[in-house]
Amino acid sequence: QVQLVESGGGVVQAGGSLRLSCAASGSIFSINTMGWYRQAPGKQRELVATSTSGGSTNYASSVKGRFTISRDNAKNTVFLQMNSLKPEDTAVYYCRLWPGEYWGQGTQVTVSS
Fold it and tell me: Given this model, what pLDDT does residue 61 score?
């Protein structure tokens, strides 16, 4: 059984920063990918960023240059540093772990204009 627990969401003004964390526990393969998705009201869930255990990262074009994904492999934790936040970044952010279909419960990020 794998569990993902997210933290760090909140309300911030446009231009501000937030840092999300996601800690994975349970039976986790040492070779894996962890990442973040987000879902805004009325919109489909979209990929934000991914990070492999080998060190590769990938970003959605909408967040490239503003968001940074990082991880602590020893603690099976992934982080998302979000800078220069915009109102359109408002969404529920979900952590995901591959291989398998493991999701966190989601954390709300609200950016006010």
Answer: 98
